[in-house]
Amino acid sequence: MDYQTGFFYLFSAVLLFAAYRVVTARNPVHAVLYLMLSFSQAAALWLILKAEFLGLTLVLVYLGAVMVLFLFVVMMLDIKLDDDRWGFWQNFPLAAALGAIVAAEIIAVLWVGFPAISAQAPAAVAAEASNTKALGKLLYTEYLYAVEVAAVILLVAMVTAIALTLRQRKDSKAIDPALQVRVRAADRLVVLPLAATQQQAPAVVTAEEGKA
Known about the structure:
By secondary structure, the protein is an all-alpha fold. Among the domains are: about 1-80, NADH-ubiquinone/plastoquinone oxidoreductase chain 6, subunit NuoJ (Four Helix Bundle (Hemerythrin (Met), subunit A), Up-down Bundle); about 130-165. The protein has helices at about 5-25, 30-50, 50-75, 90-120, 130-140, 145-165, 175-180, 185-190, 205-210. Helix 1 (about 5-25) runs antiparallel to helix 2, helix 2 packs antiparallel against helix 3 and helix 5 crosses helix 6.
C-alpha cells in the first residue's frame, strides 16, 4: 500500500467519524464544527482523486461561507439543551430507515452504475488534460439548461429569503421617521391639574406627650 492509499483511508476514517458525530453530538455548535471537519476531509479526498476543482469549491463555498453562516446562526439561536426537547430515540427508527435507503442507493450506484459507465467511457485522457476545463465544457454545453434552471431556483430562493426577512412584523421595534416628524405634544403628553401646595395634616398629640 502506497502513501496515497494510506492517506485515502485516513481521510475516509476521519470523515466517517466526523459524520457520525454530526448526528450524535448533543451540542449544536459541536455538530456544526464536526460538519466542517467532515467537509474538509471530503475536500481532501477530492484532491487525492485528482478532482481539484471540486475539492477547492467544497472548501471555498461550504467551509468558507455556508458553514460559517450556520455556525453564527446556531450560536445566535441560543438553543437550550433540554433532554425533553431532544427526541433522539423517538425519531431513530425513521432516521435509520432513511439512512438504510440512502446507503442502498449509494451501493447500487457504486456496484452497478460505475462498471456500465466505465464500459461505455472513451479512452483515458492524457495526464496533462485539465479536468476543470472538461467539467466546464460539460456544464455549459450538455448540461446548460440544468445549470440555468438551478441558477433561477437559487435566485428565487434568495429573493424569497430577503422578502421573508424584510416583511413587516408586529413584534418589530423599528420606528418610522415620518411618524416621528408628525408627532404632536398633545398626543404624547397629558397634563393633570394638581394643586400647587397641600395643607399639612394636624399633628396628633398623645397623652404621654401632653404630660411631658
